Amino acid sequence: MANACRQEPETSEDTALCAGHLVLWTWRKFVAGDYGCALLAREYESRAGDGAEDLLNAFGDFLVLLGRSSRRTLSVGRPLCVGVTLDEGQVLRLIAAAQGGDGALVTAHLSWLVRSGSVQTVRGALDRLAGLLSASGIVLPRVQSPAPCGSAMLRVAR
Question: 3-class SS at 9?
Fold first, then answer.
């Protein structure tokens, strides 16, 4: 994965995909207790330079606060697992919304994930993480949902 991310992407979607993999990989490594992964540290150093340690610390701070404040235990896959859990997908969308400055969507995600008394604390850590990720060029794609279809019309047959 690390080598594929270092290649020059052909499209911005390639970069976004790589960013999502990196964020998910980081989360899973942290949950597994592998904070000192040399490959992970090297990947962040290549993207954030001298700010890599601050970025990884911000990631850890966010995860600790999210875990302590969560309404329930979040489902996280194993580090080498290919699939993405529903909770992982939601947190990726949460970070993307924070990076995109969509305050309403961030509030909605946090309201679902975090107990009400902890929202501001988690949001502060999220904003710091999102800012450092963006400054390092690690930008998650925004999920674009299609517009809902018009209201259903039922014909009354007599």
Answer: coil
Name residue, tokens 């674009």: 144
Q: How confident is the model at residue 13 (pLDDT cuts 50, 70, 90)?
A: very low
Phi, psi of 78 (to 5 degrees): -75, 155
**Taking a C-beta distance cutoff of 8 angstroms, is the pair 48, 59 a contact?**
no
Q: What is the pLDDT of residues 14-66, one digit of tens each?
A: 444 488 889 999 999 999 888 788 888 899 999 999 999 999 999 999 999 99
- DSSP alpha helices (H): ranges in 1-150? 2-6, 12-31, 38-48, 52-69, 86-99, 103-113, 119-135
The Cα–Cα gap between 7 and 89 comes to 25
For residues 48 and 136, the answer to whether their CB atoms sit within 8 Å is: yes
* CA distance linking residue 143 with residue 77, whole number of Å: 21
**Beta-bridge mates of residue 114:** 70
